[in-house]
Protein backbone atom coordinates (compact mmCIF):
# COMPACT_ATOMS: atom_id res chain seq x y z
CA UNK A 1 0.00 0.00 0.00
CA UNK A 2 1.18 3.52 -0.85
CA UNK A 3 0.18 6.46 1.35
CA UNK A 4 1.31 10.02 0.61
CA UNK A 5 0.23 12.82 2.95
CA UNK A 6 0.85 16.58 2.83
CA UNK A 7 3.66 16.33 0.25
CA UNK A 8 5.38 19.59 -0.68
CA UNK A 9 8.15 19.98 -3.26
CA UNK A 10 10.07 22.76 -4.97
CA UNK A 11 13.41 23.54 -6.64
CA UNK A 12 15.88 25.87 -4.96
CA UNK A 13 14.10 28.87 -3.52
CA UNK A 14 11.40 28.84 -6.17
CA UNK A 15 7.67 28.49 -5.69
CA UNK A 16 6.27 25.23 -4.39
CA UNK A 17 5.37 22.88 -7.26
CA UNK A 18 3.57 20.39 -5.02
CA UNK A 19 1.46 21.97 -2.30
CA UNK A 20 0.31 19.57 0.36
CA UNK A 21 -0.50 16.77 -2.08
CA UNK A 22 -2.03 13.52 -0.78
CA UNK A 23 -2.87 10.17 -2.38
CA UNK A 24 -3.21 6.50 -1.50
CA UNK A 25 -3.18 3.19 -3.37
CA UNK A 26 -4.24 -0.17 -1.98
CA UNK A 27 -2.30 -3.36 -2.69
CA UNK A 28 -2.79 -4.29 -6.35
CA UNK A 29 -4.51 -1.00 -7.18
CA UNK A 30 -3.67 0.96 -10.33
CA UNK A 31 -3.81 4.73 -10.10
CA UNK A 32 -3.60 7.19 -12.99
CA UNK A 33 -2.38 10.77 -12.51
CA UNK A 34 -3.13 13.21 -15.33
CA UNK A 35 -2.36 16.90 -15.58
CA UNK A 36 -1.20 19.65 -17.86
CA UNK A 37 2.40 19.80 -19.06
CA UNK A 38 4.37 21.56 -16.30
CA UNK A 39 1.77 20.75 -13.62
CA UNK A 40 4.31 18.81 -11.54
CA UNK A 41 3.98 15.15 -12.52
CA UNK A 42 7.73 14.73 -12.99
CA UNK A 43 8.29 16.51 -9.69
CA UNK A 44 5.93 14.02 -8.04
CA UNK A 45 8.02 11.12 -9.36
CA UNK A 46 11.22 12.75 -8.11
CA UNK A 47 9.69 13.44 -4.71
CA UNK A 48 8.43 9.87 -4.28
CA UNK A 49 11.81 8.38 -5.20
CA UNK A 50 13.88 10.97 -3.33
CA UNK A 51 15.95 11.99 -6.35
CA UNK A 52 14.57 15.53 -6.16
CA UNK A 53 17.22 16.19 -3.50
CA UNK A 54 19.89 15.30 -6.07
CA UNK A 55 18.64 17.97 -8.50
CA UNK A 56 18.74 20.90 -6.09
CA UNK A 57 15.17 20.37 -4.96
CA UNK A 58 13.39 19.96 -1.65
CA UNK A 59 10.52 17.66 -0.68
CA UNK A 60 8.77 17.31 2.65
CA UNK A 61 5.78 15.33 3.83
CA UNK A 62 4.84 11.72 4.60
CA UNK A 63 5.52 8.86 2.18
CA UNK A 64 4.75 5.33 3.37
CA UNK A 65 4.89 1.97 1.58
CA UNK A 66 3.42 -0.99 3.47
CA UNK A 67 3.63 1.13 6.62
CA UNK A 68 7.35 1.92 6.18
CA UNK A 69 8.09 5.66 6.37
CA UNK A 70 10.37 6.68 3.47
CA UNK A 71 10.51 10.45 3.78
CA UNK A 72 13.98 10.43 5.36
CA UNK A 73 15.32 7.52 3.31
CA UNK A 74 17.83 8.04 0.48
CA UNK A 75 16.88 7.08 -3.10
CA UNK A 76 18.78 3.78 -2.99
CA UNK A 77 16.88 2.69 0.10
CA UNK A 78 13.53 3.75 -1.34
CA UNK A 79 14.19 1.76 -4.52
CA UNK A 80 13.73 -1.48 -2.55
CA UNK A 81 10.04 -0.61 -2.15
CA UNK A 82 9.32 1.91 -4.93
CA UNK A 83 10.44 1.14 -8.48
CA UNK A 84 10.23 3.54 -11.41
CA UNK A 85 9.68 2.70 -15.06
CA UNK A 86 11.36 5.61 -16.80
CA UNK A 87 10.37 6.93 -20.22
CA UNK A 88 13.54 5.48 -21.73
CA UNK A 89 13.49 1.85 -20.55
CA UNK A 90 17.00 1.23 -21.91
CA UNK A 91 18.46 2.87 -18.79
CA UNK A 92 17.17 -0.11 -16.77
CA UNK A 93 19.74 -2.39 -18.44
CA UNK A 94 23.37 -2.71 -17.32
CA UNK A 95 24.76 -4.90 -20.10
CA UNK A 96 24.32 -4.47 -23.87
CA UNK A 97 23.13 -8.06 -24.37
CA UNK A 98 19.72 -9.09 -23.03
CA UNK A 99 20.87 -12.54 -21.86
CA UNK A 100 23.81 -11.10 -19.88
CA UNK A 101 21.62 -8.48 -18.25
CA UNK A 102 18.84 -10.87 -17.28
CA UNK A 103 21.34 -13.41 -15.94
CA UNK A 104 22.66 -10.76 -13.55
CA UNK A 105 19.13 -9.91 -12.37
CA UNK A 106 18.30 -13.60 -11.98
CA UNK A 107 21.40 -14.28 -9.86
CA UNK A 108 20.85 -11.21 -7.65
CA UNK A 109 17.22 -12.20 -6.95
CA UNK A 110 17.55 -16.00 -6.93
CA UNK A 111 15.16 -16.60 -9.83
CA UNK A 112 15.51 -18.06 -13.30
CA UNK A 113 15.87 -16.13 -16.54
CA UNK A 114 12.80 -18.01 -17.82
CA UNK A 115 10.82 -16.62 -14.87
CA UNK A 116 11.76 -13.07 -15.90
CA UNK A 117 10.73 -13.73 -19.50
CA UNK A 118 7.45 -15.30 -18.38
CA UNK A 119 6.62 -12.25 -16.26
CA UNK A 120 7.39 -9.97 -19.22
CA UNK A 121 5.39 -12.15 -21.62
CA UNK A 122 8.39 -12.63 -23.93
CA UNK A 123 9.98 -15.69 -25.53
CA UNK A 124 13.57 -16.99 -25.46
CA UNK A 125 14.13 -15.36 -28.85
CA UNK A 126 15.04 -12.03 -27.19
CA UNK A 127 17.97 -13.55 -25.26
CA UNK A 128 20.41 -13.44 -28.17
CA UNK A 129 19.67 -9.81 -28.96
CA UNK A 130 21.18 -6.49 -27.95
CA UNK A 131 19.19 -4.01 -25.88
CA UNK A 132 19.18 -1.70 -28.92
CA UNK A 133 17.51 -4.40 -31.04
CA UNK A 134 14.39 -4.70 -28.88
CA UNK A 135 11.35 -2.49 -29.34
CA UNK A 136 10.38 0.11 -26.77
CA UNK A 137 7.48 -2.07 -25.62
CA UNK A 138 9.66 -5.17 -25.19
CA UNK A 139 12.21 -3.21 -23.14
CA UNK A 140 9.45 -1.75 -20.98
CA UNK A 141 7.99 -5.15 -20.18
CA UNK A 142 11.40 -6.58 -19.33
CA UNK A 143 12.18 -3.57 -17.11
CA UNK A 144 8.88 -4.08 -15.26
CA UNK A 145 9.68 -7.79 -14.84
CA UNK A 146 13.04 -6.84 -13.31
CA UNK A 147 11.32 -4.46 -10.86
CA UNK A 148 8.75 -7.09 -9.86
CA UNK A 149 11.48 -9.70 -9.38
CA UNK A 150 13.38 -7.27 -7.17
CA UNK A 151 10.38 -7.24 -4.84
CA UNK A 152 9.18 -3.65 -5.10
CA UNK A 153 5.69 -3.00 -3.73
CA UNK A 154 4.91 0.07 -5.87
CA UNK A 155 5.86 0.75 -9.49
CA UNK A 156 5.67 4.35 -10.72
CA UNK A 157 5.37 4.56 -14.50
CA UNK A 158 6.41 7.88 -16.02
CA UNK A 159 4.65 8.37 -19.40
CA UNK A 160 4.78 4.65 -20.28
CA UNK A 161 2.65 5.05 -23.44
CA UNK A 162 4.63 7.94 -24.93
CA UNK A 163 6.41 5.88 -27.62
CA UNK A 164 4.16 2.82 -27.95
CA UNK A 165 1.97 1.73 -30.83
CA UNK A 166 -1.50 0.35 -30.06
CA UNK A 167 -0.40 -3.30 -30.01
CA UNK A 168 2.39 -2.50 -27.53
CA UNK A 169 -0.09 -0.54 -25.38
CA UNK A 170 -2.36 -3.60 -25.17
CA UNK A 171 0.57 -5.83 -24.17
CA UNK A 172 1.60 -3.36 -21.46
CA UNK A 173 -1.95 -3.25 -20.09
CA UNK A 174 -2.02 -7.06 -19.99
CA UNK A 175 1.23 -7.09 -18.01
CA UNK A 176 -0.10 -4.52 -15.55
CA UNK A 177 -3.16 -6.70 -14.97
CA UNK A 178 -0.88 -9.67 -14.21
CA UNK A 179 1.27 -7.85 -11.67
CA UNK A 180 -1.87 -6.42 -10.01
CA UNK A 181 -2.77 -9.96 -9.01
CA UNK A 182 0.54 -10.28 -7.15
CA UNK A 183 -0.37 -7.28 -4.98
CA UNK A 184 1.99 -4.76 -6.61
CA UNK A 185 0.47 -1.28 -6.81
CA UNK A 186 0.99 0.84 -9.94
CA UNK A 187 0.97 4.64 -10.21
CA UNK A 188 0.88 5.81 -13.83
CA UNK A 189 1.52 9.40 -14.93
CA UNK A 190 0.29 9.71 -18.47
CA UNK A 191 -0.97 12.16 -21.13
CA UNK A 192 -2.27 9.60 -23.64
CA UNK A 193 -4.74 8.39 -21.04
CA UNK A 194 -7.54 7.81 -23.55
CA UNK A 195 -5.93 4.40 -24.16
CA UNK A 196 -6.02 3.20 -20.55
CA UNK A 197 -8.94 4.84 -18.74
CA UNK A 198 -10.85 1.56 -18.70
CA UNK A 199 -7.91 -0.34 -17.15
CA UNK A 200 -7.23 1.71 -14.02
CA UNK A 201 -8.87 1.75 -10.58
CA UNK A 202 -8.41 5.40 -9.66
CA UNK A 203 -7.93 8.60 -11.70
CA UNK A 204 -6.57 11.82 -10.21
CA UNK A 205 -5.76 15.17 -11.78
CA UNK A 206 -2.75 17.23 -10.71
CA UNK A 207 -3.53 20.92 -10.74
CA UNK A 208 -2.27 23.78 -8.58
CA UNK A 209 0.07 21.42 -6.74
CA UNK A 210 -2.72 19.16 -5.47
CA UNK A 211 -4.64 16.10 -6.64
CA UNK A 212 -8.39 15.96 -7.20
CA UNK A 213 -10.91 13.90 -9.15
CA UNK A 214 -11.08 15.00 -12.82
CA UNK A 215 -14.11 15.55 -15.02
CA UNK A 216 -14.96 15.14 -18.72
CA UNK A 217 -12.90 11.99 -19.29
CA UNK A 218 -15.77 10.06 -20.86
CA UNK A 219 -15.44 11.79 -24.24
CA UNK A 220 -11.77 10.85 -24.58
CA UNK A 221 -12.56 7.29 -23.54
CA UNK A 222 -14.89 6.97 -26.53
CA UNK A 223 -12.36 8.22 -29.09
CA UNK A 224 -10.85 5.87 -31.64
CA UNK A 225 -8.75 6.68 -34.68
CA UNK A 226 -9.23 5.18 -38.12
CA UNK A 227 -6.43 4.80 -40.68
CA UNK A 228 -7.58 4.69 -44.32
CA UNK A 229 -5.54 4.34 -47.50
CA UNK A 230 -5.70 7.31 -49.87
CA UNK A 231 -4.60 7.76 -53.46
CA UNK A 232 -1.21 9.33 -54.08
CA UNK A 233 -1.55 12.08 -56.67
CA UNK A 234 1.67 13.90 -55.86
CA UNK A 235 2.68 16.26 -58.67
CA UNK A 236 5.41 18.46 -57.26
CA UNK A 237 7.33 16.64 -54.56
CA UNK A 238 9.96 18.25 -52.34
CA UNK A 239 10.72 14.99 -50.57
CA UNK A 240 11.36 11.67 -52.31
CA UNK A 241 12.74 8.31 -51.22
CA UNK A 242 13.63 6.07 -54.16
CA UNK A 243 14.27 2.37 -53.47
CA UNK A 244 15.89 3.21 -50.13
CA UNK A 245 17.52 0.42 -48.15
CA UNK A 246 19.21 0.95 -44.81
CA UNK A 247 20.81 -1.26 -42.17
CA UNK A 248 22.61 -0.47 -38.93
CA UNK A 249 24.43 -3.80 -38.61
CA UNK A 250 23.55 -6.91 -40.58
CA UNK A 251 19.77 -6.48 -40.53
CA UNK A 252 17.90 -4.08 -42.80
CA UNK A 253 15.42 -1.77 -41.05
CA UNK A 254 14.34 -0.30 -44.41
CA UNK A 255 13.95 -2.53 -47.45
CA UNK A 256 13.29 -0.75 -50.73
CA UNK A 257 11.22 2.20 -49.47
CA UNK A 258 9.59 4.41 -52.10
CA UNK A 259 7.54 7.53 -51.33
CA UNK A 260 7.01 11.10 -52.48
CA UNK A 261 5.61 14.04 -50.52
CA UNK A 262 4.47 17.46 -51.69
CA UNK A 263 2.74 18.79 -48.56
CA UNK A 264 4.75 21.01 -46.23
CA UNK A 265 3.53 18.76 -43.38
CA UNK A 266 4.69 15.13 -43.56
CA UNK A 267 3.86 12.54 -40.91
CA UNK A 268 5.17 8.99 -40.53
CA UNK A 269 3.17 6.53 -38.45
CA UNK A 270 3.55 2.79 -37.92
CA UNK A 271 4.46 0.11 -35.37
CA UNK A 272 7.40 0.36 -32.97
CA UNK A 273 10.60 -0.53 -34.78
CA UNK A 274 9.11 0.14 -38.22
CA UNK A 275 11.93 2.49 -39.26
CA UNK A 276 10.22 5.86 -38.77
CA UNK A 277 13.12 7.39 -36.81
CA UNK A 278 15.60 6.09 -39.38
CA UNK A 279 13.66 7.81 -42.18
CA UNK A 280 13.88 11.10 -40.27
CA UNK A 281 17.66 10.71 -39.95
CA UNK A 282 17.94 9.97 -43.67
CA UNK A 283 15.95 13.12 -44.50
CA UNK A 284 18.13 15.13 -42.13
CA UNK A 285 21.24 13.66 -43.73
CA UNK A 286 22.91 12.40 -40.55
CA UNK A 287 22.90 8.88 -42.04
CA UNK A 288 23.14 7.80 -45.67
CA UNK A 289 21.13 5.02 -47.35
CA UNK A 290 22.84 1.69 -47.91
CA UNK A 291 21.18 1.68 -51.33
CA UNK A 292 18.82 4.01 -53.11
CA UNK A 293 18.42 7.77 -53.02
CA UNK A 294 16.90 10.40 -50.72
CA UNK A 295 16.00 13.67 -52.42
CA UNK A 296 15.11 16.63 -50.18
CA UNK A 297 14.54 20.17 -51.42
CA UNK A 298 15.21 22.59 -48.55
CA UNK A 299 17.73 25.14 -47.39
CA UNK A 300 19.29 25.75 -44.00
CA UNK A 301 18.59 26.30 -41.15
CA UNK A 302 17.05 23.03 -39.93
CA UNK A 303 15.84 22.29 -36.39
CA UNK A 304 15.89 18.64 -35.30
CA UNK A 305 14.06 17.37 -32.22
CA UNK A 306 15.22 13.78 -31.60
CA UNK A 307 13.22 11.22 -29.67
CA UNK A 308 15.83 11.53 -26.91
CA UNK A 309 15.33 15.25 -26.36
CA UNK A 310 18.11 15.27 -23.75
CA UNK A 311 20.62 15.19 -26.59
CA UNK A 312 19.66 18.82 -27.21
CA UNK A 313 18.96 19.77 -23.59
CA UNK A 314 22.48 18.78 -22.50
CA UNK A 315 24.15 21.30 -24.82
CA UNK A 316 24.17 24.12 -22.21
CA UNK A 317 23.58 24.76 -18.51
CA UNK A 318 20.64 27.16 -18.81
CA UNK A 319 17.56 27.59 -20.98
CA UNK A 320 18.72 31.03 -22.08
CA UNK A 321 22.14 29.76 -23.16
CA UNK A 322 20.51 26.94 -25.10
CA UNK A 323 18.34 29.40 -27.02
CA UNK A 324 21.34 31.57 -27.91
CA UNK A 325 23.34 28.51 -28.97
CA UNK A 326 20.59 27.27 -31.28
CA UNK A 327 20.10 30.76 -32.69
CA UNK A 328 23.82 30.99 -33.46
CA UNK A 329 23.75 27.61 -35.21
CA UNK A 330 20.76 28.77 -37.27
CA UNK A 331 22.37 32.08 -38.15
CA UNK A 332 19.54 34.00 -36.49
CA UNK A 333 19.55 37.03 -34.23
CA UNK A 334 18.12 36.20 -30.81
CA UNK A 335 16.86 38.08 -27.78
CA UNK A 336 16.49 36.50 -24.35
CA UNK A 337 13.61 38.93 -23.74
CA UNK A 338 11.67 37.42 -26.65
CA UNK A 339 12.10 33.96 -25.16
CA UNK A 340 11.03 35.14 -21.71
CA UNK A 341 7.89 36.70 -23.19
CA UNK A 342 6.90 33.48 -24.96
CA UNK A 343 7.55 31.36 -21.86
CA UNK A 344 5.40 33.66 -19.75
CA UNK A 345 2.56 33.65 -22.29
CA UNK A 346 2.35 29.85 -22.28
CA UNK A 347 2.42 29.60 -18.45
CA UNK A 348 4.74 26.62 -18.69
CA UNK A 349 6.77 27.27 -15.49
CA UNK A 350 10.12 27.58 -17.27
CA UNK A 351 12.69 30.29 -16.51
CA UNK A 352 15.63 31.20 -18.73
CA UNK A 353 17.96 30.48 -15.78
CA UNK A 354 16.67 26.88 -15.39
CA UNK A 355 18.86 23.90 -16.23
CA UNK A 356 17.21 22.35 -19.33
CA UNK A 357 17.95 18.82 -18.09
CA UNK A 358 15.93 19.44 -14.92
CA UNK A 359 12.73 20.19 -16.87
CA UNK A 360 10.03 17.57 -17.38
CA UNK A 361 9.91 15.75 -20.73
CA UNK A 362 6.88 17.76 -21.76
CA UNK A 363 8.47 21.07 -20.75
CA UNK A 364 11.58 20.21 -22.80
CA UNK A 365 9.49 19.68 -25.93
CA UNK A 366 7.38 22.79 -25.39
CA UNK A 367 10.61 24.75 -24.92
CA UNK A 368 11.95 23.48 -28.25
CA UNK A 369 8.71 24.43 -29.98
CA UNK A 370 8.84 27.94 -28.52
CA UNK A 371 12.40 28.25 -29.83
CA UNK A 372 11.26 27.02 -33.24
CA UNK A 373 8.56 29.69 -33.29
CA UNK A 374 11.17 32.36 -32.59
CA UNK A 375 13.99 31.04 -34.82
CA UNK A 376 11.75 30.13 -37.80
CA UNK A 377 13.82 27.30 -39.35
CA UNK A 378 13.05 26.38 -42.96
CA UNK A 379 12.57 22.75 -41.90
CA UNK A 380 11.65 21.09 -38.61
CA UNK A 381 12.21 17.37 -38.13
CA UNK A 382 10.54 16.02 -34.98
CA UNK A 383 10.65 12.49 -33.57
CA UNK A 384 7.63 11.81 -31.30
CA UNK A 385 6.60 15.49 -31.02
CA UNK A 386 3.92 14.95 -28.35
CA UNK A 387 5.94 12.89 -25.88
CA UNK A 388 5.23 14.38 -22.45
CA UNK A 389 2.66 16.87 -23.78
CA UNK A 390 -0.78 17.19 -22.24
CA UNK A 391 -3.81 17.40 -24.53
CA UNK A 392 -3.80 21.19 -24.30
CA UNK A 393 -0.25 21.43 -25.67
CA UNK A 394 -0.84 18.69 -28.24
CA UNK A 395 -3.63 20.87 -29.66
CA UNK A 396 -1.48 24.02 -29.45
CA UNK A 397 1.39 22.26 -31.22
CA UNK A 398 -0.96 21.13 -33.98
CA UNK A 399 -2.25 24.68 -34.41
CA UNK A 400 1.31 26.05 -34.50
CA UNK A 401 2.21 23.61 -37.27
CA UNK A 402 -1.04 24.23 -39.17
CA UNK A 403 -0.59 27.99 -39.13
CA UNK A 404 3.17 28.17 -39.74
CA UNK A 405 4.92 28.43 -43.07
CA UNK A 406 7.48 25.85 -41.98
CA UNK A 407 8.08 22.52 -43.57
CA UNK A 408 7.63 19.96 -40.79
CA UNK A 409 8.44 16.24 -40.93
CA UNK A 410 7.35 14.11 -37.97
CA UNK A 411 7.28 10.51 -36.75
CA UNK A 412 4.63 9.74 -34.15
CA UNK A 413 2.58 7.03 -32.44
CA UNK A 414 0.01 9.64 -31.41
CA UNK A 415 -2.89 9.17 -33.82
CA UNK A 416 -4.94 11.88 -32.12
CA UNK A 417 -2.18 14.37 -32.88
CA UNK A 418 -1.83 13.12 -36.46
CA UNK A 419 -5.57 13.63 -36.98
CA UNK A 420 -5.24 17.30 -35.96
CA UNK A 421 -2.67 18.20 -38.64
CA UNK A 422 -4.38 19.65 -41.70
CA UNK A 423 -3.40 19.11 -45.35
CA UNK A 424 -0.66 16.65 -44.45
CA UNK A 425 0.96 13.75 -46.28
CA UNK A 426 0.67 10.80 -43.87
CA UNK A 427 2.61 7.59 -44.53
CA UNK A 428 2.11 4.28 -42.75
CA UNK A 429 5.47 2.50 -42.67
CA UNK A 430 6.66 -1.04 -42.03
CA UNK A 431 10.24 -0.57 -43.12
CA UNK A 432 11.62 -4.09 -42.74
CA UNK A 433 8.94 -5.34 -45.14
CA UNK A 434 9.48 -2.46 -47.54
CA UNK A 435 5.85 -1.41 -47.07
CA UNK A 436 4.69 2.20 -47.31
CA UNK A 437 1.11 3.39 -47.80
CA UNK A 438 -0.21 6.91 -48.04
CA UNK A 439 -3.10 7.16 -45.56
CA UNK A 440 -5.45 9.48 -43.72
CA UNK A 441 -6.10 9.47 -39.97
CA UNK A 442 -9.52 10.47 -38.69
CA UNK A 443 -11.17 10.58 -35.29
CA UNK A 444 -14.17 8.34 -34.67
CA UNK A 445 -16.33 8.88 -31.57
CA UNK A 446 -18.02 5.67 -30.41
Automatic annotation (TrEMBL):
CDD domains the UniProt entry points to: ABC_cobalt_CbiO_domain1
Keyword ATP-binding carried by entry: yes
GO cellular component: ATP-binding cassette (ABC) transporter complex
Record's subcellular location: Cell membrane
Taxonomy, superkingdom: Archaea
MF-aspect GO terms: ATP binding; ATP hydrolysis activity; ATPase-coupled transmembrane transporter activity
SUPFAM superfamilies found in the cross-reference section: P-loop containing nucleoside triphosphate hydrolases (SSF52540)
Domain ABC transporter: 2-233, 239-445
Keywords assigned: ATP-binding, Cell membrane, Membrane, Nucleotide-binding, Repeat, Translocase, Transport
Family: Belongs to the ABC transporter superfamily.
PANTHER family assigned: ABC TRANSPORTER ATP-BINDING COMPONENT (PTHR43553:SF23), HEAVY METAL TRANSPORTER (PTHR43553)
Function according to Swiss-Prot or TrEMBL: Probably part of an ABC transporter complex. Responsible for energy coupling to the transport system.
Protein name: ABC transporter related
Annotated source species: Caldivirga maquilingensis (strain ATCC 700844 / DSM 13496 / JCM 10307 / IC-167)
